[in-house]
Amino acid sequence: MIEWPPIVLTLKLAAVVCAVLLVVGMPIAWWLSFSNWRWKFLVESMVALPLVLPPTVLGFYLLVAFGPESPVGRLYRAIAGHGLPFTFAGLAVASVIYSLPFMVQPMVSAFSQVDRALINASSILGASRWRTFFRIVLPLSVGGVVTGIVLSFAHTLGEFGVVLMVGGNIPGATETISIAIYDNVQSLNYAAANRMAVLLLAFSFITLSLTYALNRRVWDVWPLHR
Amino acid sequence: MALVPGESIHESQAVVSIDIARRLSDSFELRASLRASAGFTMILGPSGSGKTTLLDCIAGLARPDSGRIAIGERVIFDSARGIDLPPASRRIGYLFQSLALFPHLTVERNVEYGIARMPAAERERRVSAILDSFRIGDLRGRRPGEISGGERQRAALARSLVTDPAVMLLDEPLSALDLGTRSKIIEDLRRWNESHRIPILYVTHAPEEAFALGERVVVLEAGRVIADGMPQDVLKAPRRETIARIVGFENVFDATVAATMESQGTMVCRLDANHLELEVPLTSARVGARVRVAVRAGDIMIAAERPRGLSARNTFEGRVVEMRRAGVTVVAMVDSGVTFEVHVTPGAAEELRLAPGRQVWLVLKTYSCSLVEP
To answer: Do B187 and B1 contact (CB within 8 A), yes or no?
Structure first.
């Protein structure tokens, strides 16, 4: 007897967050890897903030930022007809911000490891930055990108604090697995909590193992002889 | 191998002219002014003399603080007019020391990388032609990690040249290769350039390579050009001592192999300037091949009378034309049809009463003469 709605919702949330992060995170990672701007460290700190902040702090500020008093909240309400907090969209936005470093940091480390000489060679051969990125940097950073996708997916699966603050526990809309486990424990329904916890544990372990195994193969296919 | 120094200077299609300054640290500034026409211009200098920075500035990877770089009429950098073309639009080929072949792409994909915008048929034709002319046609499906060092060099060279660059830059590209592989690749590059006639700037810290290959040699020291000209003229430039220290020999002569004595392990080279015959150690050069003979000034002996009963095979009569002190060494310039620079100790100079106008005999051991080869 497994409660499916929280599981489906969680997977959907993780997938949406991952897709958004891929699009948003890649340019940020590219910029962080190659910019020489002297204040770059400020952006680096911003991106890394969710790693150190308690989820409640982040959730609290997001709640305020999404609220009817804030410009962002009002703009969203004007467009969508309802507020962001306690909706799936609000949850997704919060999760994107919360999981950002998990997507960006593996990418930055992979991009930075690409030999600068290859990038120089590419531009001397007439390639645009765009082409250099997609033909040289990205293919040589596949491992980092895959790691980023998996880490941010897994991180979104397991997040609790931000979801509780921004999403609440509305079944079918914002009740994710971690919230459902919490609710079950609160109502002393340990059997149901255990079923979900085991599922989350197994799923996380399998995805991580698959990525690490796959990652190793990626490098075997493309030997880097220096 | 057949050397053709000084032979292939034709009318140049494009001349690259460089006049730049770039400060790298408080104590080091590259300030270089030079022009290179079609053919090999060797840029020689000790490490840290600014050679790679110079190439980076030409390619657009480094930005000079001031100055101007032009290829023919086309200005690619001019600080005064605010011109600074990005590397992608400079039409320059650059062979890095590390080669920088794309490790995830096959040889074929690497080579066609720079001509991706061409129609497929034209692209395929060009790639095939260049792969064949660099003798790596059968490697097109391999990745850089799967081929030998020499083959990687050829692939990287083909990748640059297929884009039809207006200037080709090479940064110590062949230093990791053995002599045979190296000279074959250089011959291929020379043959390619017979039909393309572009300036090739070749950076090296190996004087033998510079003097053997170059139609012109530019010597760089501490960011400055201290000599620039035909190989045999470079050693005669001002600041001779510095140049000799960098180069490792003071005398260099163009010559032709006149005879080889395999059983003796020697051969005879006839100097172009005065048909003087020098016995030198045997190399793979054939009779009739054009070579350059290098001799250290300290390896030449001076005799006041015609020497007899010596093991040394080369004795020439000459006349002292110039004498000067350089530290604890006496430098004598002796005219023997060509001018030899000879270093002796002050004591020896005094005992032999060396002075301008004095008739002397020069003695060179066979093994003091070396052929410069890449």
So the answer is: yes
